[in-house]
Amino acid sequence: MRSEYQTRWHKQHFACFQCRKAFKRRWPCDYLPHGVLVNRPFPCPECGQPMNDMGVDFKAPPRNALRQWLKVAVLYSFGIRFDWDPATGQGPGPRPATLSALEDYLVSLGHAREEIRARIETVSQSLSRHGSESKPPHE
Predict the structure, then answer these.
(1) Is residue 76 part of a domain?
(2) Is residue 137 part of a domain?
(3) Would you say residue 60 lies in a domain?
(4) Segment holding 52, helix H or strand E
(5) Is 90 helix (H, G, I), strand (E, B) or coil?
(6) Which of 107, 73, 80, 85 is nearest to 95 (CA)?
(7) How far apart are CA 78 and CA 93, in angstroms?
(8) Which one-letter DSSP state was computed for residue 60?
(9) Using an 8 Å Cβ cutoff, are 134 and 128 in contact?
(10) Assigned domain for 136 exists
(11) CA distance from start to end of the chain
(12) Domain containing residue 17
């Protein structure tokens, strides 16, 4: 187990995929009343939509890196976060560095290529409907 996980609280990272913004919040004492453990969404300060809980090891891509934000949104849509397992102390493990490596990564986790391609298209359309630029440029 990494020693920093044993010694202090880490702030949870939250991201808004539409606005391409990320913020940190401490877990749970900063934002849950009386320590009540409920999944309370945080609104994005720009668009007001609920932000996504990305885990403590998330590092947001630059705001103008559209393909990286699409990659992160697709990973999140498959339930993949950037968190560690408190039982084993294992970190989030390797993640694909580029959008083009995403498909092979998800196939290695047991997902079908057709499902992955459909999800990438769905997430991309969802992000472009909510105010992002249309499609990200090709790599």
Answers:
(1) yes
(2) no
(3) yes
(4) strand 52-55
(5) coil
(6) 80
(7) 15
(8) P
(9) yes
(10) no
(11) 36
(12) 3-129
- The pLDDT score that the predictor gives to residue 24 is 85
Please identify which residue in the block is written with the tokens 């995929």. 17
Count of alpha carbons within 13 angstroms of residue 92, beta-carbon side: 16
Is residue 75 within 8 A of residue 119, CB to CB? The reply is no
* pTM, to two decimals: 0.77
Half-sphere exposure of 52 (CA within 13 A, CB side): 23
pLDDT tens per residue, range 67-110: 999 999 999 999 998 887 767 767 677 889 999 999 999 999 99
Confidence of residue 129 (pLDDT cuts 50, 70, 90): confident
- Per the structure, how many domains does the chain have? 1
Residue 43: asked if its preceding bond is cis (omega within 30°), the reply is no
Specify the pairing of strand 21-26 against strand 52-55.
Answer: unpaired
132/50 Cα distance (integer angstroms): 16
Q: What is the DSSP string of 15-35?
A: EETTTTEEEEEESSTTTSGGG
Contact 92, 2 (CB under 8 A): no
